[in-house]
Write a structure and sequence with these properties.
By secondary structure, the protein is of the alpha+beta class. It contains four helices and eleven strands. It holds the Pfam family Peptidase_M15_4.
Length: 227
């Protein structure tokens, strides 16, 4: 996955191509980035961001949030392989407890997540491949197609299973190979649905769901500040 860059559109995004047959009902096993939890019980830890973690993240001095206001969250999640794994997120210190609680509810509901790791600068700057499915929070980038900072750049947003819950606006689909998941009537594991466990978990913390927006429709996106 992620090895074949897509031809670019004039807007800089990759060309929107049909979903490969093997990803129409995506259910890939998780590749462990961190050691899996020792217990099947949900565990989570909120800590100051270690220097090594900050260095491999997209944080830089120009970002709109000081590094001291970010927290390193490690937590249990269930993969599509039905096993427990350890994920990592960078979030704003004020958002960390809500994020831990929301993902605890998803763990109890056995909602599957493919991977959960911090976005690196290389990934942020790489040509689009259109097949990513990393659940992530802090990424120091602007709003898609704009110049103002995204809620992700403040550590106040989480994207859940992006491939299963694509962003759409006009003819744009992100990730670019995820068109099969624009059909929300065909409910498959990992999809965020109105009134479903993911929406309920984040709504309980007062967060908004981008899947309820009219344009764009950002089905992967949960935000503490409405952006």
């Amino acid at each position: 996955m992620g090895a074949r860059p897509l031809p670019l559109r004039p807007d800089g995004f990759g060309q929107i191509l049909p979903t490969p047959p093997e990803l129409v009902n995506r259910s890939l096993p998780t590749q462990d980035f961190l050691p899996p939890p020792a217990s099947t019980t949900y565990t989570a830890k909120i800590a100051d961001v270690p220097d090594a973690v900050l260095k491999r993240s997209t944080w830089q001095a120009a970002c709109p949030v000081p590094s001291a206001d970010l927290r390193y969250v490690t937590l249990s999640f269930r993969g599509f392989d039905h096993r427990a794994h350890t994920g990592e997120l960078l979030v704003h210190k004020d958002a960390a407890p809500a994020v831990v609680k929301a993902f605890g509810e998803l763990y109890a509901q056995q909602f599957p997540i493919e991977e959960m790791r911090i976005t690196s600068p290389a990934e942020l700057d790489a040509p689009p491949t259109g097949d990513g499915n990393d659940t992530s929070a802090f990424v120091c980038r602007p709003v898609r197609g704009q110049k103002n900072w995204s809620a992700h750049a403040h550590g106040l947003a989480v994207d859940v299973n992006p491939f299963c819950n694509p962003y759409t606006k006009d003819d744009l689909v992100l990730p670019e190979l995820a068109s099969a998941y624009v059909d929300r009537a065909n409910v498959r594991p990992g999809m965020v649905t109105a009134g479903g466990p993911v929406v309920r978990a984040f709504a309980g913390a007062g967060w908004q769901w981008g899947g309820a927006w009219k344009s764009p429709v950002d089905r992967m996106h949960f935000t503490a500040n409405g952006e």
